[in-house]
Structure formats: structure tokens, C-alpha cells
Amino acid sequence: MTPRPPLVPVTNLGRRPTTTRAVALAAAAVLSMAVSACGHSTAGPGTATAGVVDAVGAENEYANVLAQIGGRFVHVSSVLDDPNTDPHTFESSPRVAEEVSAAELVVQNGVGYDTFMGKIESASPNPRRKVIVVQHLLGLPDSTPNPHLWYDPRTMPAVAKALAADLSALEPAHAASFQAALRTFDSSLTPWLDAVAAFRATYGGSSVATTEPVADYLLTAMGMVNRTPFRFQADVMNGVDPEPQDISLEEGLFSRHLVKVFCYNQQVVDSLTSLLRVDAQRAGIPVVGVYETMPTPGYDYQTWMLAEVRDIQRAVADKVSTEQL
């Protein structure tokens, strides 16, 4: 397994604001990601290069797949790309607005996770711009309770296919390259999907506890049973104090050894989740840190997802934690 890059979790000893993910109340650092490893232009937004598509991924996992499909024919920037910041407390900046305004292709999550993107797009209409909203691509309603769509193994193949189609429409001369990259990408998912299937066959039915529904889609695909009430997960996700009985239930999962692993959102930490992590570790329940933003450097989307599966398997099979007391 590729070791995790060293990451420092965001610590918020108070609660997150009581809000949906659509509302941004605190500033976060915004980094432009020019994917030089793929030979992309490093020109700033609005400085178009002939034959190169300016593109933006609202989250860096989508930007990464966009870069893989577009190769040297795209210049990619990402908005939410720092695994050491809380993606829920994001405020746009002039730089982000400039990048999105100049973009010919945008991919964003939807389900209320990155609504700031739609506001920027509406403020800077561009008839040539193509926008892929993953929620709509998957046919999901606005009421979808878990917005972490990239953890679902069904999501990125659909996203990659849509990206290849839109890039081909924008740059028909390079359509063959985009389609070839799509085939390569789909093939590269095989180790991850095989690992998911192997876990399900061997350890399916294993119980897990979580702080938030970050990796829930993946856990379901792996055949795991999440013993944490979704009401508790949603409260933590939205910065609401969980009900006392739900906190007691969560603590009991550890003290009574009712779960094999605790999947803990290492990217967003508060006093409650920190205490639960300590409770789990003292009870001998292995803890696996999961992230909302793809850790960088050292990962692409495929290797990130594969690392998550392998870490969970090591926790279940060998009681190995990724987090230490």
C-alpha cells in the first residue's frame, strides 16, 4: 500500500456553523492547480492557448480526473484542493471567480456541496462553457442526503465519460485522444474495483462506525454495515449538536466492541469527534482517517480510493489504525 502523505487535520474545537453545505461562512485558502505532470498549460485564467481547453474542477478529485482525460489539451484548475482545510467553510475569492469565468468546461459536485460555483457561473455567462453537475449526471434529486458522490464506485466512470464527450465537442481535433484517455482511465479503476469486490466477498457484513457520511457510498459498496445512525452523521456534517442518545449509542459501539473499524473524517475535526476517536482507540477499535478532498501530492483519484479500501481492510483484518493516540 502506498503510505499516506503526512497530513495535519483541521482542528475546530467549537462546532461548525449550523448550516447546509451550500452556505459559506468562513474563508479557506484557494489554490490553483496547474497539472504540470500532465503537460498542462500554466497560463493564468483567460489566457487561452490554441487547442487547449481552460477547465475547472470544483473539487480536486474531479479536477484530477479531468486532467487525466484531457491530458495536454487541457489547462486544469481546482477550487477545493487542500486536505488540511474544511471544505464546508469555503468562501469564494476573485481568483476563483476569474478562473471559473474563463473556463470552457466546469465539473462540480452538486447536492448543495458547491453551490458557490453556480453563482459564479451565473454572474459570468459564457455560451461556450460546458458545465457538468455530477448530481444531475447521476440523476440524483436535491434531497440526496449524502453529497460525497465521488466515493461511489459508479460516479467517476460516468464523470469521465461525460468529460470525454464535452472535451471532444470543444476540441473535435483531439477527440481520439480524449476517447483513448477515457479507455485508459476506465481500465485504471480495475485494481480499486477488484479490491472492493474482494473485501465484500471476504469481509462483507463487517460493522463500521463513522463520524460523517464521507465514505458511506464506498462502505456500502464494500458490503459493510454502518452502525452509526445517519441522523448523527448528518448532525456532525452540518455542525449541529447530535442528540445525547445518539452520542451515547456511538460511544457504546466502541465500549461494547460492536464495530470492527471507526472511519473518521480527519479533514474536519471538532471536540466531539476527537473524543470519539480517543474512545475508539482506547477500546481497541482501529481508526481509519478518510478525507473529503484528495490528498496531494502522491495520489491520483484511483490510488486514493484504493488506499482507502486497503486501509479499511487492514483495520478489519489486522486491527491496524491509520490514526494514533
Low-confidence stretches: 1-47
Number of strands: 10
The CATH architecture term of the largest domain is: 3-Layer(aba) Sandwich
- Gross morphology is globular
CATH fold field value of the largest domain: Rossmann fold
| CA(first)-CA(last) distance | 22 Å
What order do the SSEs take from the amino end to the carboxyl end, as H and E? Answer: EEHEHEHEHHHHEHEHHEEHEH
Our count of helices gives 12
Q: What level of helicity do the residues show?
A: 40-55%
Query: Please, how many domains?
Result: 2
Determine the mean pLDDT. 85
Summarize, please.
The chain has 325 residues and is of the alpha/beta class.
Would you kindly provide a written description of the structure presented here, covering whatever features stand out?
It is a single chain. The chain has helices spanning 60-70, 94-102, 115-123, 134-137, 155-170, 175-188, 190-203, 216-221, 230-237, 244-255, 271-282, 301-318; strands at 10-12, 53-59, 74-80, 105-108, 130-133, 207-210, 225-226, 261-265, 268-270, 287-290. With 325 residues, the chain is an alpha/beta fold. The strands form three sheets. A four-stranded parallel sheet has the order 3-2-4-5, with helices on both faces. It has a four-stranded parallel sheet with strand order 7-6-8-10, with helices on both faces. Helix 1 (60-70) crosses helix 5 (155-170), helix 1 packs across helix 6 and helix 7 packs parallel to helix 12 (301-318). It has two domains: 22-146 and 154-188, Nitrogenase molybdenum iron protein domain (Rossmann fold); 190-318, Nitrogenase molybdenum iron protein domain (Rossmann fold). The chain has twelve helices and ten strands. The two termini are 22 Å apart.
